[in-house]
Fold:
Amino acid sequence: MTVAISKSALKPKLLGYLRMVEHNKQSIIVTDRGRPVAQILPFQESKEGPLDELKGSILHYTDPMGPVGLEDWELKL
Structure:
C-alpha cells in the first residue's frame, strides 16, 4: 500500500513518515499540487555488488586491441 502526501504536509512531520516507511515497509508518494514529484521507498539491502549485474554481459572477447564493430559503421558522404 502506497501513501500519498503533499510536500507541505510532509515537511513538518518528515521524521514520522520516514519511521513509517521503515517499520511498515510501504512507500510514500510526495505530491506538489496533486502531481507526484518524488517517491520514498524502504531501503533494500542488495546481495550483489555493482559489477555483478554486468556478469555474463560480454558474450565473446578475443582481441582486446583489435577494431570494434567496423562492419557496423556506415560511411556517408
